[in-house]
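$ run holo --ligand "adenosine-5'-triphosphate" --emit tokens
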Amino acid sequence: MPEAILRATNLTKVYGSGRTAVRAVDSVSLILKRGEVVLLMGPSGSGKTTLLTMLSGLLRPTSGSIKLYPPESPRRPIELTGLTQDELARLRLERMGFIFQHSNLLEALTAVENVMVPLLIRGINREEARRRAEGLLEELDMGDRLNSRPSELSGGEQQRVAVARALITDPDIIIADEPTANLDSKNGKEVIKLIHERAKKDGKCVIIATHDPRILGFADRILYMEDGRIYRKDSQQAERLLLFEE
Ligand SMILES: Nc1ncnc2c1ncn2[C@@H]1O[C@H](COP(=O)(O)OP(=O)(O)OP(=O)(O)O)[C@@H](O)[C@H]1O
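-- output --
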């Protein structure tokens, strides 16, 4: 049985108050485990981004608990809701990797420099940071694009660099919001394949919010959200629901 990396219990987020209050996430409980790829699907406005933002420690839940289990001391979970903003920022830097719809690379920097940034912030010296960033980009088949600027790369290549930037700090959990939405079919599949391979090879846990049916085949589990609540679906059910959405 793979070990838990993160456990959310009765997580709720209410935006606003009184008659205009929106219960964006409604008493959600879930467990994310090492080495698994979990998809979060559901119609627009169902609460996916709100849930991911809370799991990332960027948004305080109205109520509920989020526990992260460090692999080195799984019996001493970290309760995210009890941390200060500074502690949360450190936790994100040390234990989480993020991939977004837009690669959000820094245009002034080359591909390898973009991947070095999280290491430099962690105080690793330039030479070592460059060595590690080059090594990872080479593993991701980007070895011949190390010194290209983001604008000189295709959308798929930019997302590969973003994947490398998310992986370079060896995070426990990778949180991705629509990582393939801007990519064509071939590049979308390659990027998700890459994320899936790394999850399996390195025992990472990946949670991906997506509307992209091409990703279904790469999921170990699908959580389907509707009106702030989670329903578990198999991939055929999810596919039917996605078709129904359109
Ligand atoms: N900052 C906010 N203030 C008030 N209401 C919000 C805020 N952010 C989101 N909401 C509301 O919370 C609900 C869930 O929104 P959320 O963005 O989490 O959904 P989503 O499933 O990620 O949608 P999409 O697939 O379109 O990104 C929606 O009703 C939305 O209008």
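-- notes --
The chain has a mean pLDDT of 90.
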